[in-house]
Specification:
CATH topology of one domain: FAD/NAD(P)-binding domain
CATH superfamily of one domain: FAD/NAD(P)-binding domain
Radius of gyration: 22 Å
CATH class of one domain: Alpha Beta
Structural class: alpha/beta
Shape: globular
Distance between the termini: 23 Å
Helix content: 25-40%
Number of strands: 20
């Protein structure tokens, strides 16, 4: 049997890489990271295709409210190697493009639609003091009213998540601020928006010379000797107070940064957790690259129209300055993607990339399910960290923060 590792980390995305680096900073050298793909990065991987910089895991933009994450990232990729942008994001509503978020920019719609949307927002259940609902669809109606719900929020979220909103919980919606009806009316009368109302990323950093993957490359540089790629975990069993991985590696501790339901069979399909694992669901997206011409300053646009399979479009050279002009990519839920059906200005995509996993889906009961799984395995020294390990809709900076905090608080 092989040597006994202090830690085996499953997954070499940003959470796994950060766990590796921070453990080594604490003096742990007897560790290994197992990555099923042929390179680290996970969702934050970048490819260059015909001069276009493509983040193949979808839209990622860096900023953070956590000082430890800012210091961590800039210590590997200096701040002066980033451009700093004020976010420009849009929403397409019935053929009209307005600024995001919609509730602050109703005034940009045509008059009749503006009136309908204002009535919807004014009559929202939150402002009327109605109790908070328990599923996502009811919550949307409670937050923004029926009109906004039916023409924007429901179709967009069905396209994004691939499940019906009434199947989804509400505990992940803390990022969305309260809708202040007085402010909505004021902005509409004054024909202005307040960008401070963005839920996140009012400003963001993006590497000057490449894509978001430059951050991964900088962090992974010194960790490569500890990463074993092309290694999928297919067996994870407890033996004599140790973990046996794939029948060959032994570890005192295992840190999982990948989707838990991908490990259900590897863990022996524990019957007592079967129901909990069934609630740990995720979707996949397809990222499609196009070469076109555009004369806008937008970074991305949300597209709720169900006649279009994709839900977001990104204008690459507006944030990746080293990218060839005219690059654009679309995000489409895997279930809505049909090859070669979407053309931009008559051109088909130059490449389509399916993510291994894109977003953890917050179905009803998911929070208790992941709590049960983590509580069950923690005494056995199997931990979950990051977007997938904690099954939370975390941006990259939050996953890094959670990894930093985990290692700092870990009792060895």
């Amino acid at each position: 049997m092989s040597k006994i590792y202090e830690f085996v980390i499953i997954g070499a995305g940003l959470a796994g890489l950060t766990c590796c680096k921070k453990l080594r900073e604490k003096g742990v050298e007897n560790l290994i990271v197992l990555e099923k793909n042929d390179a680290p990065g996970g969702l934050c991987t970048t490819k260059v295709i015909d001069g276009h910089i493509l983040d193949v895991g979808g839209g990622h933009f860096f900023n953070s409210r956590f000082p430890d994450v800012l210091e961590y990232v800039f210590s590997h990729l200096p701040k002066d190697e980033f451009n700093y942008y004020e976010r420009v994001s849009k929403v397409e509503i019935d053929g009209h493009t307005i600024d995001y978020p919609i509730e602050s920019n109703v005034w940009q719609l045509p008059l009749e639609k503006r009136i309908d949307y204002l009535i919807s927002i004014i009559r929202n259940g939150e402002s009327l003091g109605k109790p908070e609902p328990q599923n996502f669809e009811e919550w949307i109606r409670w937050k923004l009213g029926d009109k906004v719900c039916e023409e924007y929020m429901i179709p967009y979220n069905e396209k994004l998540w691939g499940v019906m909103p009434q199947e989804m919980d509400v505990d992940w919606l803390y990022k969305i601020p309260n809708v202040n009806v007085r402010e909505v009316l004021q902005y509409c009368l004054e024909s202005r928006q307040d960008v401070t109302k963005f839920p996140a990323h009012i400003h963001f950093y993006y590497p000057k010379k490449g894509g978001f993957g430059c951050i991964v490359d900088a962090i992974a540089k010194d960790e490569m000797p500890f990463i074993k790629c092309n290694t999928k975990v297919t067996l994870l069993e407890r033996r004599d107070d140790l973990w046996l991985i794939n029948g060959e590696l032994q570890a005192k501790n295992v840190i999982n940064t990948t989707p838990w339901n991908d490990l259900f069979c590897a863990l022996g399909s524990p019957e007592e957790l079967r129901e909990d694992f069934s609630r740990i669901r995720y979707n996949r997206i397809v990222v499609s690259l196009y070469e076109t011409e555009y004369d806008v300053n937008w970074h991305w646009r949300y597209v709720p129209d169900k006649r279009k399979p994709f839900h977001r479009e990104f204008y690459i050279s507006n944030f990746a300055q080293a990218s060839k002009k005219g690059g654009m990519y679309l995000e489409t839920g895997e279930g809505r993607f049909i090859d070669n059906t979407v053309q931009i200005n008559g051109a088909s995509s130059k490449g389509d990339f399916i993510t291994d996993a894109a977003y953890p889906i917050p179905v009803l009961g998911h929070k208790q399910a992941i709590t049960n799984i983590l509580t069950y395995f923690r005494p056995l020294r199997l931990f979950g960290v990051g977007r997938w390990g904690q099954h939370e809709y975390q941006n990259a900076d939050v996953s890094m923060h959670e990894a930093i905090q985990f290692v700092e608080q870990l009792e060895r």
